[in-house]
Please model this.
Amino acid sequence: MSKYTINEIAKLCGTSPATVSRVLNNPDIVAAPLREKIENTMQEVGYKPNPFASRLSSKSRWGLALFVFDILNPFFAMIVRRISHLAMEQGIPLTVCDTENNEEKERIYLDYLLDNKIGGIIFAEGISMATIERARKYTDTVLIDRHSEEGVVSEVSSDNYSGARQAVEYLLQLNHRRIGFISGPEKWPSAEERLRGYKDALELNDIKFNPALVSQGDLRFESGISALEYFLTLPEWPTAIFSANDQMALGAMNKAQLLNISVPDDISMIGFDNIPYYTLYNTKLTTVEQNIPALCQSAFNIMMRKLEGDNTETKEKRIIIPTQLKIGETCRKLIG
Amino acid sequence: MSKYTINEIAKLCGTSPATVSRVLNNPDIVAAPLREKIENTMQEVGYKPNPFASRLSSKSRWGLALFVFDILNPFFAMIVRRISHLAMEQGIPLTVCDTENNEEKERIYLDYLLDNKIGGIIFAEGISMATIERARKYTDTVLIDRHSEEGVVSEVSSDNYSGARQAVEYLLQLNHRRIGFISGPEKWPSAEERLRGYKDALELNDIKFNPALVSQGDLRFESGISALEYFLTLPEWPTAIFSANDQMALGAMNKAQLLNISVPDDISMIGFDNIPYYTLYNTKLTTVEQNIPALCQSAFNIMMRKLEGDNTETKEKRIIIPTQLKIGETCRKLIG
DNA sequence: TTTGGTATTGAAATCGTTTTCAACACAGGG
DNA sequence: CCCTGTGTTGAAAACGATTTCAATACCAAA
Model:
């Protein structure tokens, strides 16, 4: 590919390599005519600076990494897809780290990245705070859907609380009163927020929160199945179920179908995420949509600003992306 | 992290940087006592060579990339998981390129990688031959489950033909005679091989191949659904369906359930892949297992050998990994 | 003892940038 | 007219490795 060096470009333009370097990194400080001449020449011969040489002299860190805890989960796969697309657009190499929900793997990946002077790391929900804290000491970090203590780390997340609350309020409007909740993993901030939204929606409508109506899952399809099985052991079945993500909702629906329990006739169902992947059942799932593109774009922007050394702004950012209730065909109105 | 340079190590050991470099890259040529001393010192102070400096002087290419056409497909997500794990173990940065089944994206990713002097690229099935051919000119390549013309590119693949044939023969043993096939995308070598396995199994058992019993899919769940719908329009339904991957099989099963058609009582079903992800239905899918870990390990090994410049062996390798029929609960024996 | 070969090591050039630092021109203020 | 400040550029020194080439030591063969 590009066989030219900065010296040759300089010679071609009758200037010095220093100046060429300047138009590369700080175009404003070189006089317009010369700058344009250099830019044109670079264009013509298809010059691309040698990335290794650049990074050698500018001792800056470089490259991005993205941690996800389970790449088989379509929600996270989607995040991988978006972020890697954005990174490539900017010409920044991205290392995808699928930790398989394993702290040891987190550690190994992180060690490796820090050794390689990684420029920044984006963590999706599900990565341990220990890993994140360690990373923060050596490099820039941004969290997606993973809250830390207020303001300590930059983070972008969906409005999990409002999304959950809205979902439950929708069920309440449909006259449901006994609403089951399939929660996410304990201690995950996003899961806790969704639980809180569920609780608050109930209590603000004078329905007492009943822990027996909560089944804890791990976000995988299978735990939706177990959750439904659990709910069916209750003396009174819930008339509706709100699941902390689509996959568990689909697991529950699937199990219901096998048992000849109709969704929505017997039980209404709402999910969370709106993974396009799962528009597969012919009854379309009602769900709270997370705006994954916005989530990723936003996280990426913050990271870019950090990489550019925007240290003037010492305060860490926290951005909340609104969710949207997507009404499908899995909820039915109970007769008053 | 590592703040030491090769010069400091040299000084610490009373030798020259050249020698330190030698123990790094070619340990055999330095005398044992000195070598050990240097090795120990590096160990002690936690020295890690600066990757950028290395790559600058040794003008070698570096790093790996993995192309998949759809990271939301669990089969490919699994490949991403395995390969990125292997790469990290070797301390080699990996760039994951999810092309979203889009040739333009393939092109952009490839340009980017070549500019960055990528060391090698692993292509999974689904990437266009044009992209692969172009990559081959500039860097090392290995294909997973993607055949090229015989012997031109190194490739590792499952034994698609035998796997398919075995699946169909199993159905024949169960006295099925009208067997539908949900194929993969046209022109995909792996898909063609599975189709060929299907055909041959039939014809070797004196059953005429009937094109009406083949429905072409795109590997996604949805196309399994459409395939089943298609089969049901036939005057005589197939008694069994062999699907070119699990996802489509599951789509078909799902649709069947909704229509109150029982698998396996009304229709038997066999998939291909054995994605662990999909052990979710309580009727376990009978399927042809691809040995993904072996597939990935093998591809990775070949790549490593290429990276180490094993040019002595000019011949490209082609490795076939056996598949295994996993008998689940979705096939039933017809009465003779 | 001399010669030739081999094993081991160091000095110095090199890779392609970035980054000081100094030089220069030119402007306006006194 | 001199001085100073500003804008623009080039020379040269890093950056931290690898690699070439020559030097040295040592051993076996003649």
